[in-house]
Structures are given as C-alpha cells and as structure tokens.
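hey can u check if this looks right to u? its 267 residues, i copy pasted from the old doc so theres a chance i mangled smth
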Amino acid sequence: MIWTNEQGLFLQRHDQLGERDWRYDDCFKLIFSPYGKGEYQTHHGDRSIGEEEFFIMNPKVEHKQLRATQEKFLVELTPSLLQEAAEKMGIHHTHIEFSTVSYRHRQMIQWATFMREFLSRQKEGVSALFLENSLVQLSILMIEYGVGSHQKELPIPSGSDPVYRVVSALKESYIQQWSLDEMAVVARMNKFQFAHAFKKETGLSPYSWLQVYRLFRSQQEIIFTEHSILSIAIKHGFANVAAFNHLFKKMYHKTPTQFRHFHKVNQ
C-alpha cells in the first residue's frame, strides 16, 4: 500500500521485498525494519539494518533493496519540508546530510509502530491532513534522532537503565580508551549481558557506539574551524588519523577533508 502527499509518501508492503532495479530519488527516505534484517545496496557498499532499526537515505543516492524480513516500511519526504523543520528548530545548516549508520531509538520505534498499525487498518483511505501532519512530525524526529551532519553529538537513549548509565559515562569521558570490562562495571552487569543490552537499545555494539559518538563530537569542528584533521582526530579520542578517516568514509562516503569542503560550499 502507498499513501501519498505533496510533501512525501508512506509505503508499507509484504510482497516484492527485493528490487531488481536501482532507484534514484530526489527526497529523503526513512527506512524502518519492523521484524528483522534488511539489506540495501549502494555504489559505496551494502547496508544492513536490524530489527526495529532505521536509517535515512539522502536524496540522489542510487540504491537497491536486496531483501527485507516480512515487511517493507519506508517514508519519503521532500528536502524542503526537512529544511523548514530544521530552521524552526534553530538549525540553520543549508544542507543536512545523514550518515549511513543504522540506529535504534525508542522515539523512532514508537512513531513507526503507531504509523504502521494505523495505516494497515485503513480501508477507505487516509486524510490528507493526517498525512501532512505525520510527515511534519517525522521531519522533526529525523532531525532530533537521525544521525547526521547537523548533530553536535550522537542522539542517546533516555531513561535510568544500565545502558543509559554507561552512555552518560561515555559522554563525560569519551576521549578515554574504554574497555568492555570497564563499561560493564558502570552498568553493574557482566560484560556479555551488557554488550547484548547495549546492542538491543542502540543497534550498535558498545565500542562502535563510542567511535561513532567521537566522530559526531568532531564534525562541527571540521565544518566550522580550520584546525587540522589530525589534531581534531586526536582531540576527540581517535588513536590515529587513519582510523578517523576510515570511519568517516564509512559513515558519509567522504573523508573528513571532503566532508569539510562539501559543507563549506553548501553553507
């Protein structure tokens, strides 16, 4: 089923869960995996998404869905809608670019679960006003919880559970070279239970989350200063500039230098 609006569309289907042809869209695309692993192919490499995780495809990124588990759920929305929401939230980047990381956040899960259930029950169409309001709401959630160039740091889980305790500690000392054992002590769990709980909450392993957090703490400095890439990498906890460059390339398909140039040109 497809529900369309001039600002975007919702798609929910349980058949044709793979695609033969490449797609090239002029919109942002939120992809949510309700039941299990999905796989997408781009010219920069394949992307995997786990159960209740999401990622956001930037406009004009050529891609193809290889498979989805049971259900395909995605939402497309126009760049102008996202930009309008960003400006109203006080974010004045002229170009928001989302990374390729697959992530899990409770607010996104709640929104996607409600929308999927609501749309699947509609037999006689959905009002244009409801679709418009839902797309506006999603644009706000994407800016708040989507992992992208506008973020000063990685969106974090909320609550008082062990994962939140560890995330709070990592934020305060993210330059420190944390071990899994040290994180587990903060969580008051054994390291295997902790690693499983952390992955379930965020969609990332504890070490991967820490590395991605370091990257997002660094990116505003890359965009808005002339500091060397080496000094920025070391300042934000990376052991060497090669590891920093490798993660940046994986996240944005750009080196830090290319990322800096791109956002200076598009400011």
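The mean pLDDT is 90.
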